Amino acid sequence: MILTDTQYTRFQDYIRVNHLIFSDRIVQEFFENPSNIFILLQTLDGDTKAQDELEVRFRNHFFHIRFFKFLTSTIKFSAIGQIRRYKKMEGRDQLIFDGPISNDGDTTTLGEILNDIPILPEVDLRSSDPEYFHDYMENNYLADAFSNLTYKQKRVITLKFALGLKDKEIASLLGITPQAVSKIRNTVLQKLRRVIVERG
Questions:
Q1: Which residue among 23, 77, 107, 195 has its CA within the 20 to 30 Å range from the CA of 3?
Q2: Radius of gyration in angstroms for the set of CA atoms belonging to the chain, rounded to a whole number
Q3: Which of 69, 60, 72 is nearest to 33 (CA)?
Q4: Is 0.85 surpassed by the pTM of this model?
């Protein structure tokens, strides 16, 4: 929409009279749209429908600004949280594989002990930790329900869904049968589904 010279002059006069209102950046941005200026001029002429339309448009404009700020803050604080979690995990209990594991005179090293462990499916220890998996759950109801599971249930769910292991591989890691893994998984999924349906 293009304003006539008369309409533009009238709007400028209105700004001068109401300069305090128009010193606000949100108001200035709102009236960058010529159709909003046109509706304001109609409102000044006593058109009540135009006044209602102007109020709706301004509320929407204000909502978009606040929503954008909310999204920006959410992304910023999520990134900060992610960096903190990463640094916390990075500095946790660093191990020395060629040093003795105790101070009581035993010279056995951690590396020697690890070499004696049978080879199982390759697992990223950090992402197989249920607490690490729990920290990345975005659904609060799911996270609460997950925190109420037994440690074994948490391990099965983490190995299955965080690492994508098969029941047979999970059974080898945990020293139980694949049937037990399947039973635990199904029980937990029913429990989690019930919690989400009840609260969600």
A1: 23
A2: 31
A3: 60
A4: no
